[in-house]
C-alpha cells in the first residue's frame, strides 16, 4: 500500500536540471558538428590554394639548356612537389566528399520553410561527422599541418632550382630565412596541439563530472520514490 504522505520525488528543480542536461548535450553535439564543418572548410580552402600554387610552380618554372642542376636537386624538387600536391589533393577530396552532408543537416536545422510545414527538426546525429571523424582529422592535419610544412620546404627548394645557375646567394638567403620559419612552425604546431588536447581533456572531465552528479541525483530520487511506494 502506498504511503498517503508520499509526494512525487522529482521536483521542479530536478526536472529543470534534467532539461538543462539535455540542452547542454544538444549544444555539445551541435558544437562538434560546426567544428567539423569549419575544419573541412578550412582544409578545402588551404589545400586548394597550396596545391594550385605547387602545380603552377612546377609547370611555369623555366629551365634553360645552360642551367646545369645537380641530379639530387631535380629529384628533391620532383619528389617534394609530387608529395605536396598529393597530400593537399587528398585533403581536398575528403573535404569535398564529407562537407556537403554536414552542410545539408546544418541548413535544414535552420530552415524556416521546413519548420513551417511541420517537418521534424534535424539533429546533429543525422550528420555523418561522428562516424567520419577520423577522416576529418586526417584532412585537417594533412592540410594545415603536414601540407603547410611541405609548402614551406618547397619554397627554398624552388629557389635553388630557379637561381642555382644565376644567383646562388639568393637561394642561400631564402634558405637562411625559411629554416627558422619551419622550426617556428613546428614548435607552434606542437604547442598548439598540446594546449588543444589539454582543453579538450578539461572539457571532457567537466562534462563527465556533471553527468555523474546528475546520475547520482536521479538515483537518489529513484530510491526515494521506491521507499515512498512501500
Q: What key phrases describe this protein's structure?
A:
single chain, 230 residues, Butyryl-CoA Dehydrogenase, subunit A, domain 3, 5 helices, 81% helix, 0% strand, disordered N terminus, transmembrane helix
CATH topology title: Butyryl-CoA Dehydrogenase, subunit A, domain 3
Count structural domains.
1
Number of strands: 0
The helix content is over 70%
Give the termini distance in whole angstroms: 6 Å
Overall pLDDT score: 78
Q: What does the main sheet amount to?
A: none
Q: Which stretches are low in confidence, meaning pLDDT under 50 for 5 or more residues running? A: 1-10
The CATH superfamily title: Calcium release-activated calcium channel protein Orai
SSE ordering: HHHHH
Short description:
This protein has 230 residues and is mainly α. It contains 5 helices and no strands.
Would you give an account of this structure?
- It contains five helices and no strands.
- The chain has 230 residues and is mostly helical.
- The chain has one domain (25-113, 128-228): Butyryl-CoA Dehydrogenase, subunit A, domain 3 (Up-down Bundle), CATH 1.20.140.
- Helix 1 packs antiparallel against helix 2 (71-109) and helix 2 runs antiparallel to helix 4 (133-163).
- The longest helix is centred in the last third of the chain and has 62 residues, at 168-229.
- Belongs to the Orai family.
Task: Give the secondary structure arrangement, pairings included.
Elements: H1 12-60, H2 71-109, H3 112-116, H4 133-163, H5 168-229
Helix pairs in contact: 1-2, 1-4, 1-5, 2-4, 4-5
